[in-house]
Amino acid sequence: MGSLRLAAAVYAFARRAARGRRLAYAMIAEPVDAAIDDARLVYRKALGEVFLRLVSEGVGNGELPPQDAAISAACIVGACLEGLVGPLAPQAASIHDAGVGLAESIARFCLRAVGCDPAVAVDIISRGGSDRWSVTAPPPPA
């Protein structure tokens, strides 16, 4: 369940960023003044806390291998944000498929990074793959 919820969270984050491209890019990468930069830190911390909870859940139930969940969560935040910078940039081509492929790629990467078997990661993503995913309620089994 932890891996599925982690995939759902990463996927939802990336899809929402793709839909709100200008705002997401501004919040992630645009040069800003100190007040906005402080808001970014708060935003990153909140995102990291969600990922920390989900990685800890996966480790706790044996779905993920033992690891420092706080470090893993911070790395997931970095992977999500860096994975979005190029595609969200104003000069980038438009995002095709409403960001589904982008979100799936980032979610797969993050699952593999925390030790989820690549085949399981692909299966988790293929079972979700829509806006029906949420962090609190996983999609129904296929």
What features would you highlight for this structure?
single chain, 142 residues, mainly alpha, flat
What does this structure look like?
This protein has 142 residues and is an all-alpha fold. The protein has helices at 2-19, 21-28, 34-60, 69-88, 100-113, 118-127. Helix content is 68%, strand content 0%. It is built from 6 helices and no strands. Helix 2 packs across helix 4 (69-88) and helix 3 (34-60) crosses helix 4. It starts with a helix and ends in a 15-residue tail after the last helix.
Which structural category do the helix and sheet elements fall into?
Answer: mainly alpha
Helix content percent band: 55-70%
Low-confidence stretches: 129-142
* Mean pLDDT value: 83
Radius of gyration: 15 Å
Number of helices: 6
As a percent range, the share of strand residues is under 5%
Subunit arrangement of the protein: single chain
